[in-house]
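Thread: "does anyone have the structure for this chain?"

Original post by V.I.:
We have the sequence but no experimental structure in hand. Need at least a predicted one for the grant figures.
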Amino acid sequence: MSRASDSTADSQSPGARLSRIIMLGVLLVLAWLLWSGYFKPLILMFGALSCAIVLITAHRMHLFDTDIFKLRFLSRLFRFWVWLGREIVRSSLEVTRIVLNPRLPIKPTVVTIDSHCDHPVDLAILGNSITLTPGTLTLSIDNRRFTVHALTETGACDIEGGEMDRRVSELRSR
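Reply from O.Q.:
Generated one for you, tokens below.
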């Protein structure tokens, strides 16, 4: 049996699927508890119910049949979130500086970039990451072509530089 079919067989095994379900369940519960901050029985029951609904829906969508929940992907995703958080803070400070400047040195710019991302989820992550970064907004996505509005020419140059596209593309590679 070839190496590719071994990894496919492993990702399709019931044990691998169950471990992915458990991993997502633990992440959902931890995120829900962290973000809600409420520990009353009724609220905890609603949280458990919502986590169960997400797990059932993900199972019915066959999301656990893919390698997306493997730990090597999660470590890359965590590094991406740290980088994106840093970019959001940096952009927030830049936009604040521009808005508080009496001359208001903005030069709205619309740019079009071609992405290296292939998967629709990667395209959505890229579009949302651009929009999350203050001073930029994804206007449209057509195939792999993004139209982005930037508050300044510097922001437009940053998007055209391709760093965010490269980082999103690397999430699935390797």
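V.I.: this helps a lot. Confidence is low (pLDDT under 50) at residues 1-10.
O.Q.: and The beta strands are 109-114, 136-142, 145-150.
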